[in-house]
Amino acid sequence: MIRHLLLDLDNTLYPKQAGLIEHIDQRIDNFLVQRLRMERQAVNSLRRLYYEKYGTTLRGVKENHGVDPLEYIAHAYHVDISDFIAADPKLRQVLQGISWGKAVFSNSPLDYVNRVLTALDIRDLIDRIFDVTFSDYRGKPDPATYRQVLQVLGLTGNECVMVDDYVVNLLPAKELGMTTVLIGAEEQPDYVDFRLDSIYQLRDVWVALGEEF
After folding, report:
1. pTM, whole model, 2 decimals?
2. What is the pLDDT of residue 88?
3. SS3 127
């Protein structure tokens, strides 16, 4: 029996076209160019390397360059959320219609996650937030982070539905027995159970799993 939704935040609960995460990526690049005194092209390569090795750029620069995570977060996420997203009544209606518990599982920091959820007007619908600090900056797709989330929730994988826009983040979820939902991407590997064009179609997953509105 499914009991809980694990929802990614960026480009999942709001559309990629909003441009918010792209703006934050630019701020991260600018911070690393200044902080590490590197050429921008080198920073791009470094971020790809750290994403593949650590799951997050933040974890990589913390481990290899001694960058203070709080300094990184303060610069990268110093953003006026209202410039990019606003209250989303349709999203609120979809989430209200699903009786499972709802947690956000994000590689972004807690304050930023709260501000995005508040801007979307769905913060009160979220039971729990697992941010990048929760796992000591390991984040997704480190399997240990997923196991830690399940332990805190007191659930097994087959009691959860994981929703994310990055296909790589869904493989550890599937390996732990979760039902996996991919948002936006066109590919659908075997370990993805459902592929949706947008989060608004999440009720289709609910119906497919035998639930009723």
Report:
1. 0.93
2. 98
3. coil
